[in-house]
Each structure stands twice: as C-alpha cells, then as structure tokens.
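Thread amino acids onto this structure.
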C-alpha cells in the first residue's frame, strides 16, 4: 500500500506537502512480538499499517498489562506520535501481534503538514477522538462489566479475528489483554469449561458453545 492511500485528505495537500510525506516515510517489516514504540519518551511517529496486526497497550507500575485496542490493515496509530499534540502524552506500548508491514512517518514531518493544512489537522483531530473513544470504552468495560462478560467477549472476538474456534493463546496472554491476573483467567476459564462453553488444553482454548458465551 502507498502512503497516500491512508489519508482521505491527500488530494487537498500541495505537491510539496505530498512529496515531503512520501520522502520521509520509512517502511518496516516488524516480526511478531517486536515492540515498535515504548512509552511517551519514544516518539516514533505515525504508524500506518500495511498488513499484519498490532497491539496498543498500557503497563501499570506493578507490571500488569491491558490492551487498549488493536490495529489492522489500513489503520493508523496516532498515539505513537502523541508528542505532536500539545499537552498530550501517552505511555502506550505498540507491539506486533503478527508479522506486520508498516509505514512510519516522522512526527516533525507530519506536525509541519498539520500546521499548514487545515484538512490534515481536522483529520488528525478526528483520529485522536476515535482513539480517545476506544480507550474510554476499555475503561468502561473494566469499571462496569464483570470479568466473566469481558472474558466471554474477548474469546468471541479472538475467534472472529483468527477465523477459528480453536484459539492458540495462553492464559497469561489473555490476562495481559484484559488487565487481569493469570490465576483469575484460569479460574474463569475452568468455570467456562465446567459449563460446557470451552474445552481447555495446553496452549489452546476450543470454543464449543458460542451461543452460551454470547448469552454471558
């Protein structure tokens, strides 16, 4: 995918602005498990996902993780360039959940274009609002939804993403996504198994009753 395909305002940029964006963009292959961005001290820039799957998450002072959202083909990660936005800093981590291909646009280049182009600035504000909405949705789930609901929702979503009812994922990995402890995940999964919703084996969870999970 070309850089211009990511931006709906591309035709509203000048030729010079388009050239600056294209010339500054760097394409990277990111292997599964690699960290692209690590906290507000590392202002990587805009990440444009050409293919693969990225995870954006927070880490508590105690080391507990929670997934804010995932990024797929054609998605843009703005929080990895939050240094462009005045008074906004995010200590998020961005890692590749699968082998991925991305474009990276340096923050100073994109900031300069935003300052010159109202269309770019408006689009960036919309993108930031979407990111805030996704983060707030996660916070609401943690505050107001019981853990069994959150786990059931995660398993169903993971099944859709993988296109399979057989999920090769560890209890530790699920805990990292949901901001919980591995022991809590294990107890709830065993309860789901007793209820006939899933079947557990080493490193794998088989969904056997989607309707039951949906009812939760």
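Threaded sequence (216 positions):
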């Amino acid at each position: 995918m070309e850089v211009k395909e990511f931006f709906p305002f591309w035709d509203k940029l000048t030729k010079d602005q388009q050239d600056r964006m294209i010339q500054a963009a760097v394409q990277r292959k990111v292997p599964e498990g690699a960290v692209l961005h690590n906290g507000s001290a590392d202002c990587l820039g805009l990440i444009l996902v050409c293919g693969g799957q990225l995870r954006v998450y927070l880490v508590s002072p105690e080391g507990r993780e929670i997934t804010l959202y995932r990024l797929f083909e054609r998605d843009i990660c703005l929080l990895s360039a939050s240094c462009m936005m005045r008074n906004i800093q995010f200590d998020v981590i961005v890692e590749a959940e699968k082998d991925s291909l991305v474009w990276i646009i340096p923050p100073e280049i994109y900031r300069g274009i935003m300052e010159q182009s109202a269309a770019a600035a408006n689009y960036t504000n919309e993108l930031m609002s979407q990111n805030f909405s996704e983060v707030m949705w996660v916070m609401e789930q943690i505050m107001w939804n019981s853990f069994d609901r959150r786990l059931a929702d995660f398993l169903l979503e993971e099944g859709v993403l993988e296109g399979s009812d057989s999920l090769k994922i560890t209890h530790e990995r699920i805990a990292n996504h949901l901001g919980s402890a591995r022991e809590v995940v294990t107890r709830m999964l065993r309860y789901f198994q007793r209820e006939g919703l899933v079947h557990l084996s080493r490193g794998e969870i088989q969904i056997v009753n989607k309707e039951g999970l949906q009812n939760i």
